[in-house]
Design goal:
The chain is of the alpha/beta class. The protein contains 14 helices and 14 strands. The model has no long low-confidence stretch (mean pLDDT 93).
């Protein structure tokens, strides 16, 4: 092996319960080139720093550690770009945050080969999935296509930050040589995805290789998506990001950006816009009806149905967490197996849940309700 070809950047903060799995998945990569792992800790208050030191001492030729003395995230500092530009040695940059992990030992090699074969692209992505907080149960897929292909920039813009799994992103380092104004609005995975796809789209490998851990303690999802006030602030920043992107690109993608801006309409408002259609569909529901999905769409559907006076037999989620309890709207949380056995009707809150359910041999009728919440 020769010079370092890929720099893996791992951002950590209070992730001691997850970090070792992430690091082992990075260290297990089988490549025909040298790669390095850069661990950045943003002043963790748990034992994350101890784990980093242990691994850095064990693999001094593979791992480099950066310890901040003041928390950079709380100051709004984008510390990732300086790491890429000034510290990373590789021609390519891969990301894996401390609570995520990889599940294919050839991930880096396959993405490296794809980028070498597709010089028109600055970013490569792969099929990913989300798992429960303990990392043991798969919850959903992050799979934009079912074949290897180039994803156009328009699809990346429309898809939002959750269109591609962050732990599956792989960039040419030179893509970060300059910084457009839209990137300075907010340091966000979404901005990186757009930047990576701007020149020639993003090459996508339809192989499941990266995992996003849902509801990890201290994660962005936990901190923002479940807090309506913080989410509102986040959405306003993303709207500014997109409007700035529109100007930066000379309005070349204006129609796409206008369409994406609709995503910042709340799910509840989207449901209200389709109220008459939904009421008509509800009138046809027979027997025991269950709601499948407890994410943001599911929570908004609960509120909507409560407002119109409709009661579910129960609500479930692929993670099967909190079974036996009650949701904030007073719905009984039941096991997915119970739903599959007893439901006459299942309302799927997301398209991926609907697609999975209709493949099963069920007596229940399955309804796709993401069609009433298409944006977001």
């Amino acid at each position: 092996m020769g010079k370092c070809e890929v720099s893996v950047i791992c951002i950590t903060y209070n992730q001691d319960r997850y970090l070792e799995r992430a690091l082992e998945s990075m260290l297990s990569q089988k490549t025909e080139f040298d790669y390095e792992i850069i661990l950045h800790d943003d002043v963790s208050t748990d034992s994350t720093k101890d784990i980093i030191r242990k691994y850095a001492d064990k693999y001094p030729n593979k791992i480099r550690a950066i310890f901040e003395t003041e928390n950079q995230y709380s100051k709004g500092v984008n510390f990732v770009i300086p790491i890429i530009r000034n510290i990373a040695k590789g021609r390519y940059i891969a990301f894996c945050e401390g609570d995520d992990f990889w599940i294919d030992e050839k991930k880096l090699q396959l993405q490296y080969e794809a980028m070498e074969e597709h010089p028109e692209c600055d970013m490569c992505a792969c099929w990913g999935c989300t798992v429960t907080e303990d990392g043991n149960n798969e919850v959903s897929q992050i799979r934009p296509r079912n074949e290897n292909c180039v994803l156009p920039i328009e699809d990346v813009i429309l898809g939002g930050g959750q269109y591609l799994v962050t732990a599956g992103l792989f960039f040419r380092k030179r893509a970060f040589d300059d910084e457009l104004p839209f990137e300075k609005v907010i340091a966000l995975d979404y901005a990186q995805q757009i930047k990576g796809a701007l020149r020639g789209g993003a090459y996508y490998i339809d192989k499941k290789m990266a995992v996003y851990r849902r509801n990890a303690v201290g994660s962005w999802t936990n901190d923002v998506l479940k807090d309506d006030e913080r989410l509102s602030i986040q959405w306003e920043k993303e709207r500014r990001l997109l409007n700035t992107l529109d100007q930066d690109t000379g309005y070349k993608y204006h129609e796409t950006i206008v369409e994406r801006l609709k995503a910042y309409t709340s799910f509840l408002n989207q449901l209200e816009e389709h109220k008459d259609e939904i009421l008509s569909e509800i009138e046809k529901i027979k027997g025991k009806c269950f709601l499948w999905g407890m994410g943001r769409r599911g929570r908004n559907l609960e509120v909507f149905f409560k407002n119109i006076g409709y009661e579910f037999e129960g609500i479930c989620d692929a993670a099967n967490e909190e079974v036996g309890g009650l949701t904030k709207q007073g719905n009984r949380i039941v096991d997915t197996g119970y739903v599959l056995e007893n439901a006459d009707t299942i309302i799927a809150t997301t398209k991926w849940a609907y697609d999975d359910l209709i493949k099963m041999d069920l007596k229940a009728e399955v309804l796709d309700f993401q069609k009433y919440m298409p944006y977001g």
